Amino acid sequence: MQRNPQLNAKGELQHLLSIEGLPREVLVQILDTAESFVGVTEREVKKVPLLRGKSVFNLFFEPSTRTRTTFEIAAKRLSADVINLNIAVSSQSKGESLLDTVANLSAMQADIFVVRHNSAGAPYLIARHVKPHEHVVNAGDGRHAHPTQGLLDLFTIRHYKKDFTRLTVAIVGDILHSRVARSLIHGLTTLGAPEVRVIGPQTLMPAGVEALGVRVFHDMRAGLKDCDVVVMLRLQNERMRGALLPSAQEFNKHYGLTGDKLDLARSDAIVMHPGPMNRGVEIDSTVADGPHSVILPQVTFGIAVRMAVMSIVAGN
Amino acid sequence: MKLHIKGGRVVDPASGRDAIGDVFVSDGRISDDFQKADRVIDAKGLVVAPGFIDLSARLREPGLEYKATLESEMDAAVAGGVTSLACPPDTDPPLDEPGLVDMLRRRAKALMRARVYPIGALTVKLKGEALTEMAELTEAGCVAFSQANMPLPDTQVLWRALQYAATFGFPVWLRVEDAWLAKGGVSHDGEVATRLGLPGIPAFAETIALGALLELVRATGARVHVCRLSTAGAIELVRRAKEERLPISCDVAIHHVHLCDMDLGYFDSQCRLVPPLRSQRDRDALARALADGVIDCLCSDHTPVDDDGKHLPFDEAEPGATGLELLLPLTLKWGEARKLPLAATLARITSEPARILGVASGRLAADAPGDLAIFDSKASLRVAPESLRSQGKNTPFLGYELAGRVRYTIVAGNVVYEA
User: Fold this and answer.
1) 0.90 cut: is pTM over it?
2) Whole-complex ipTM
3) At A307, is the secondary structure helix, strand, or coil?
């Protein structure tokens, strides 16, 4: 097996490609650094000069609004120059290869590439070919990983629950296609959460998912029992009808988070969602807007977490 | 031309012979009649074996010359001791017309290197819809018919193709994979694919297709060679079918007896292969079944892919790896791991594929074709782009140090390679 491509020779974070394989200390360092940036985002002048003079290239090969925007805000608050490239509609459609695109941008003096791509592993390919002073941050690759989302989920859980070592966390819905679920699972198991559950129908469970260290539930009510944290996943429109699921309604009936299902979790449980939500499909509005929901704080924390990741990789 | 190969360790898997001795080749054939030779090769310390027979090597001609040319790949073949090879029909255009086959055979013959046995397309343009003119193609030189890696999801067409082939006794070579279950998949559907987020192909995509194929073999009596097995489940089906005496045989690629899905590491596109590398358990079962004879032979599944095809995210990368020059060392590595006698090891790339191909080579008996590979079983080869003659430099084995270097390759009594 090759050396972990995310870490430099000193074991420091060179790129952020996946939460899997990152040592506990690195995760804690990111979360602690993010903690210090939460204050910045609440100040009147919301900027620190850590990345002044550096260029952050947002390379989105797949459409995204929320993740791209929060990366942009995070980079700007670190005083970096931000260049947004929506590759889905530019060079790739002209037939330029991924590595050629990156080489060209590299010639424009990039420091950090924030990459979203529909192919699992694309950020690894880029990381193998960039110059030593350049850093790659994975903003979502296929079904594989979405590490900054995983980190902001971990940050949110730590913020409300403090200690991971007593928690029962349930992740509900389309685990099969979810990079968010994979990243969060690796983060939770690394930080010592004793019970991570995944809940969904067999059609939305990847093969051998237990090997990631989770318990599988097909009955949502059984799976939610005594949970401290409930993470709902987005169900993509195109998967609501077809060979995986008969209808959004039937999915909602069995796997949608309603008030009465949430009652089975602990009374102080928090409800999370990576967004954008399908109200009435995976989550009911009463829950999404209810007292257990921490969905909007997640978004705010997401900026601090992305500031932390970019400042740490740029400093290593 | 008379050749006298002196003092080597002569290994003939067909007869089981393994002893120090001489081999004489006269007028392109092995001969018992030792006369004055035109050339004497001192084979002391070397193994003298029948030339290797590879049941799957893509030469990329016609149409895909930017990936490799007949010339480059025939060089690679003889450098690897391969004296006969069967090439799948997935060229551009596919080998579905006698003219194309004839041209390929004549071009290959003119190069005077390895013998080339084209496999014709089973269906027109490999589309899985209409049968090709199999009799015409056989006359042009096709030795069997196949879909290469193209699917044949219409079981009606598959049934009719097998009936038609059985009528005339044409062998059909098929890879087994249910096209619907494999759709969109790029890796073995298991823990590794789950961790990497790669779309998977379940193992039962292979066993379901094989089960259907065996049922059709029972119904039609067609002679079928099952190509590139990848799962433990398929081995069991083949074992039972052979006990039942169905007319089937099968092979496995060199990659699949040595590697498994864990070797994907961090999305290594060198491991993007068809069929996908499967679990460790599958790999071990394949290596075992090749030793106990359920799997008949080993092939390189040589598929030259250029860097542009590999420097891509895993799911977009072009499947395939170069293999002709690695066939011997990887066969030796497998045989050593299974603690097999050298003759039994070499049988998988000589006498066994010869039997499936229906050719007289692959053995050292008197009057057999004078095709030989003379190699140093101890000398090692470091697999690197510059050490490969094939135009395809990509293989999961890059960087490996492998034992087994070919010193001489002889085809029809002519020394076509020496190093």
Assistant:
1) yes
2) 0.93
3) helix
Nearest to B144 by CA among B166, B164, B108, B120: B120
- β pairing state of B248-253 and B224-227: parallel
Does residue B347 contact residue B341 with C-beta atoms inside 8 Å? no
Which alpha helices (DSSP H) does B112-231 contain, by range?
Answer: 134-140, 155-168, 179-182, 191-196, 204-220
Instruction: Provide the b/e sequence for B78-105 (b: ≥16 CB within 10 Å).
Output: bbbbbbbbbbbbbbeebbbbbebbeebb
In this predicted model, what pLDDT tens digit does every residue of B347-388 receive, in sequence order? Answer: 999 999 999 999 999 999 999 999 999 999 999 999 999 999
**B191 closest CB neighbour out of A1, A145, A208:** A208
> Residue B301 catalytic?
yes
In A213-281, beta strands by DSSP E:
215-217, 229-232, 270-272
* Portion 281-340 of B in contact with A at CB < 8 A: 308, 311-316
Q: What angle do CA B76, B80, B82 make, to 5 degrees?
A: 95
B202-236 pLDDT tens trace: 999 999 999 999 999 999 999 999 999 999 999 99
E strands in chain A = 55-60, 81-86, 112-117, 135-141, 168-172, 195-199, 215-217, 229-232, 270-272
Selected catalytic residue, list B38, B301, B307, B308: B301
Evaluate whether A294 touches A271 at the Cβ level (below 8 Å): yes
How close is the nearest chain A Cα to the Cα of B188, in Å?
10
Backbone angles phi, psi at B29, to 5 degrees: -130, 155
- Of A233, A168, A170, residue with least CA distance to A198: A170
Distance in angstroms (rounded) separating the CA atoms of residues B21 and B41 = 12
- Cα distance between residue B182 and residue B189, in whole Å: 10
How far is A96 from chain B, CA to nearest CA, in Å?
11
